């Protein structure tokens, strides 16, 4: 599988309006429609934004044909600090089922990892995790976590209306496509690695048009982060 890029254990080989009452399966969240406490955000009237964070090669693939992601291990400390800082700007994370299950095997024990991984472990474990899945019996042991996806558009709209910081999507192409096709995405952050695979899975469905709003370059690794909004 492959997935959108958030903080990850880089040494592993990784791969995928009218508001109605929510029907969430709750695991560690007192109320799935209630945002995590965010005192600095008190009084903000703007609606929370949802962004995709997607790693991609220079030739436009989110992973290799077999889900390979070993090419994303750069050893760039500044890039890892970027991911640490990004986690301080969000109040929740969306994952696909497979990404959630894979990361659940790492992050609960990552507090003793070296460098930025230990820094990232705190928010990765404490932030609400919204797992997009159609399986009502899905085990959600990495808490706080809740299953979503029965009516993803309504569920996301409800969360956006709550006070707090923005929401991030760290998921593979299949899950990412659902957010894009439903028009739920406010921003797309492409993390472009200077690698050419020649084959693999594209990160977005065809026909998506975007407008560039910002770019950031990391000199050591050659990674460029491009921030887009829907055109």
TrEMBL record:
Q: Name one GO molecular function term.
A: 5-amino-6-(5-phosphoribosylamino)uracil reductase activity
The residue ranges crossing the membrane are: none
Q: Which Pfam families match?
A: RibD_C
Q: Show the Gene3D superfamilies listed in the entry.
A: Dihydrofolate Reductase, subunit A
Q: Give the top-rank taxon of the lineage listed in the UniProt record for this protein.
A: Bacteria
What Gene Ontology terms for biological process does this UniProt record contain? riboflavin biosynthetic process
What InterPro entries is this protein classified in? DHFR-like_dom_sf, RibDG_C, Riboflavin_Biosynth_HTPR
Q: Which SUPFAM superfamilies match?
A: Dihydrofolate reductase-like
Which intervals hold domain Bacterial bifunctional deaminase-reductase C-terminal? 48-218
Q: What is this protein called?
A: Dihydrofolate reductase
Species of origin reads Amycolatopsis suaedae
Q: What is the lineage of its organism?
A: Bacteria, Bacillati, Actinomycetota, Actinomycetes, Pseudonocardiales
């Amino acid at each position: 599988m492959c997935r959108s890029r958030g903080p990850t254990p880089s040494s592993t080989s990784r791969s995928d309006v009218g508001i109605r009452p929510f029907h969430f399966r709750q695991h560690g969240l007192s109320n799935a429609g209630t945002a995590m406490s965010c005192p600095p955000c008190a009084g903000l009237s703007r609606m929370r934004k949802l962004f995709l964070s997607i790693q991609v090669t220079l030739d436009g693939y989110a992973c290799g044909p077999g889900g390979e992601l070993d090419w994303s291990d750069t050893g760039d400390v500044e890039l890892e600090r970027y991911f640490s800082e990004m986690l301080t700007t969000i109040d929740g994370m969306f994952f696909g089922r497979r990404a959630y299950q894979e990361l659940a095997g790492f992050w609960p024990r990552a507090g003793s990892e070296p460098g930025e991984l230990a820094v990232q472990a705190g928010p990765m474990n404490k932030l609400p995790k919204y797992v997009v899945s159609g399986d009502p019996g899905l085990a959600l042991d990495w808490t706080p976590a809740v299953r979503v996806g029965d009516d993803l558009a309504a569920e996301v709209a409800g969360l956006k209306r709550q006070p707090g910081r923005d929401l991030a999507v760290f998921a593979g192409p299949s899950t990412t496509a659902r957010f894009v096709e439903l028009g739920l995405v406010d921003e797309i952050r492409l993390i472009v690695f200077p690698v050419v695979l020649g084959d693999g899975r594209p990160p977005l469905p065809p026909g998506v048009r975007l407008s560039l709003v910002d770019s950031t370059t990391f000199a050591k690794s050659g990674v460029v982060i491009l921030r887009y909004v829907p055109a």
